[in-house]
Structure formats: structure tokens, C-alpha cells
Amino acid sequence: MSELVLGIDIGTAGTKGVLTTLDGAVVATAVRPHSMSLPRPSWAEVDATAVWWDGFTAVARELTGRLGAHTLAGLGVSGVGPCLLLCDSAGEPVRPAILYGIDGRAEREIHDLTERLGADTVFERCGKALSTQAVGPKMLWMQRNEPREWARATRWYNSHSYLAAKLTGAYVLDHHTASQCDPLYDIHAGSWAQDWLEGIAGHLEMPRLVHPHEVVGTVTREASEATGIPVGTPVCAGTVDAWAEAHSAGVRHPGDLMLMYGSTLFFVQILDTYRAHPKLWTTAGVEPGRRTIAAGMSTSGSLTQWLQGVTGGEPFDTLVAEAEAVPPGSDGLLMLPYFAGERTPVFDPQARGVVVGLTLRHTRGHLFRAAYEGIAFGVRQILDFLEDPDDPVRRIVAVGGGTKGGLWTQIVSDVTGREQQVPAQTIGACYGDALLCAVGLGLVPPDTDWAVTETIVRPRAHTRGTYDRLYASYSALYPATRDIVHDLADLQREQADR
């Protein structure tokens, strides 16, 4: 009878789980799709009970039901983040969770906190400027706009720390996630920025800081009855999904970069030495002592899902085949993929999607390919910021559901001129959760790496001229349309208010 580890991740579009052996072999997987709520322009929320907890329990029950003769050694968790879930003294949410950088409601609070604390001071102490990714401005937004709910709250959680609390009763947050909860965490001290907490977090109790692999408690009887996980099963703290996924893909050494094709598109690079860039996010790493630099686009898979819905709901295989039949450059069609605002590189919650060059000759396949190409141009912009002569990107590892089928990754390699390695196992962050759990329990050495490269995507020289020409137009498109789309964003808000 062998031991297995369980990893479960709460993503933007679904909950995924995996049971693995201690050498990384996948025994069973489970998936439960879900969606976020978009109640107003620039808002993105989730019902933590109905989406996060219920999705977790469904996946946990399915996977524990497939243990067979095996024993469950422990559980690792991860989730979208950084988020702001406020809970009362009984651990019940006082309102839906406010999601990470795709939620842009706190634009005024970002400005006000930056003015109050000083832009240079925030950047130096936190490793990044305040943006829609930051938690502190959303706390301030709550104080100003929903004071009753704010007054009821006693603790705050991220997606995975909420799961840890529901499972064990522990109130903790890992250092990596904390380092994204700007400006609450001092990245150099590796602790909460105590002198800033009262003016931002107010009366809220702060969680105890731990590392992602640390065991924070064991499954309670009540949680066992809800999930099927045996009482007493150890639970590791976990971290933000992108970093768990990078860990699972072997992105562990300086110069390694993960490119995650999910509902949003995310970049995580391991640093050799500390550095920060005003267009990027420097954070604590998954492993103690590590530093990472990161970037994120607000839409990728969510944009292609939207296109699928508004063009008739055909299967993705059909849409990908139609896009593949369209030549590079989409016959002169160009898309700016800022359909949910944008994080890196413009940090503009009022940015909007733009499609230019449309003619009556263009088809659904053209639109689908133009979406892939527009996202790829965004990747190229961000790679330019990530590159550093003293700490270059040496290896790109592509992960996530968007790597399946091959067209999207091929377009990104063509547009960027960069090679991408695709691991054999691309189930996602839950695989990293299982690995971190095995490490945290001492069942495998800390340097254990389960990643095996399956394919290498190489750029095709014949596409370069077309994509270089379009990239110049893409780079000019946001500055040329910014004032127009901001006016339209204002109109959208006014109509929503009415």
C-alpha cells in the first residue's frame, strides 16, 4: 500500500485536483468548471462559499473516492490571487471575494495610497508600484464604499488561505502571496509592514506568515465530513496558482521563465539577484530565500472563451482549425486584447479591447487568430521588459490549458522569436501543490523536480517579417486609442450606475 499526495487548485475558470505518487506519477485527476461574477464594469468577484469551497469539496470527494488501497499522506492547495475575502468572527464571508488584478474598482484608492505613502517608497519597500493587483487599495475601497461589511470583518483571506482555514482552522498566509498584497508586506524584511498596517488594514487581524510548503494543520472532523479527506490529514499552506504551477514545471533556477496560458496570461521568472522594474512585480519566491519577477495580462483564455460564446459556441477544436487556416497576420486584422482592462504593461483598468482592420472578407477564424496574435504581441512587449543583461531569460517553459493543440504556442514563438519548452505534465498548479506537499511532509528532498520536457516549440523564420510589421502597429494602437476607450469606459460606468 503506497502513499499518495493530493493537490487542489482554485483557478479563475475552474477547480482542478490531482492525486500523485511520490515520484510524480498521476493517479487520478478531477475538474469542476466555475465562473466569476462581473457585476459592474471593472469589477470581478467570486462567491467564496458557492465557488471556492463547494468546488474544492466536489473535487476532493471525487479524488479521495479514488484512493483505492493507497493512503493519503497530505494535501497541498493553491488558488487565484492576490484576492481580498473578508470574513467575520465565525469565518463566514461578509461579501463576495474581490479578485486579483482583473478587478479594477480601486483606481482612486491606488492613486490616494500612492500619494500618501510616496511612489518611490512603495516601489522600494514592496518591489513594485501599486496597481489593480494590490490588496491594500481594495481594503481602502471597502472602507469607503461598504463600511458596514468592512466593520463586520475580522480577518481576510486569499483563495487558498481560505481553504486552509476551512480545513484546519489555521489563519495563515504564505510569504509569496503576502508579497503581492501591497503595500502590506516589506519584501526586504520578509514581514508585514507594521507601520503601514493600521492606516490600511485597520482593525483586521493579520494572518501568521508561513512558507508554501509548510504544514499548517490537519483536517478537522467537520472538514472531513464535507470533503471526504480523512481526519488528521496534514495540510500545507500553498500559494498563488501561477507560482505553484511554475514550481511544478521545473521553473526553479535563475533565468527560468514560466509562461502560463490560462484565463489570464502570466509570467514568472526566477531571479539571480534582487531587481525591480516599474512595469513588473518583484515578489518573494516559493522557496525560502528566492526572489521572482512577474507580469500578468488581464485576458487570454477568457478572451478566446468570450469569442467562442459570441460566435455561436462551436467547439474549440473547430475554432482553432479555422484560425490555423488563416495566414499569419490574419489578413490585416489586429486586436488589442484589453477586454478586461490591462495589467502589464499599461496598468490601466479603463483600457478596453480594440479590433482594427475589419472588412467584410474577415471571418470567425480571422477573429480567433487575431486574438491569439494580439495576446502574443502583448507577450513580446512584456518579454522586452523582463530581459536584463545581467539576469537574462535563459529558458521559457509554457504551461496551462492554452498549450494544447499547438497553434497558440506556435504563434507566440513566431511573434516573439523565442523557443518554448512544454512539459509532459501540464495539468496545472494542482500538480505543484502535490509536489510542495510532498516536500513539506519530508517525503521527498526539497530539490525534487517532477518536470519532463515533452515538446519544444521553435519560431518559424518565414513569419517574422509579417509579425515585426504588425508589432509596430500593435505598439502604437493603445496610445492612439487611449482617450477614446477611456471615454467609452466612463460611458459604460455611467450606464451601469443608471
Salient structural properties:
498 residues, alpha+beta, 5-stranded mixed sheet, 16 helices, 24 strands, globular
Structure commentary:
The chain has helices at 48-64, 107-117, 119-126, 136-145, 147-152, 159-168, 175-178, 194-200, 221-227, 241-248, 301-310, 316-324, 364-386, 407-416, 429-440, 464-497, and strands spanning 3-10, 14-20, 26-33, 45-46, 71-79, 85-87, 97-98, 155-157, 172-174, 185-186, 191-192, 208-210, 215-218, 234-236, 239-240, 256-261, 265-270, 281-284, 291-297, 334-336, 354-356, 395-399, 420-423, 453-457. It is α+β, with helices and mostly antiparallel strands and 498 residues long. The strands form 9 sheets. The chain has a 5-stranded mixed sheet, sandwiched between helices. The radius of gyration is 22 Å and the shape is globular. It starts with a strand and ends with a helix.
Major sheet description? 5 strands, mixed
Question: So what's the overall shape?
Answer: globular
- Our count of helices gives 16
- Count of distinct strands: 24
pLDDT averaged residue by residue: 95
Residue windows where pLDDT falls under 50 for at least 5 positions? none
SS-based class:
alpha+beta
Identify the strand order in the major beta sheet: 3-2-1-5-15
End-to-end C-alpha gap: 63 Å
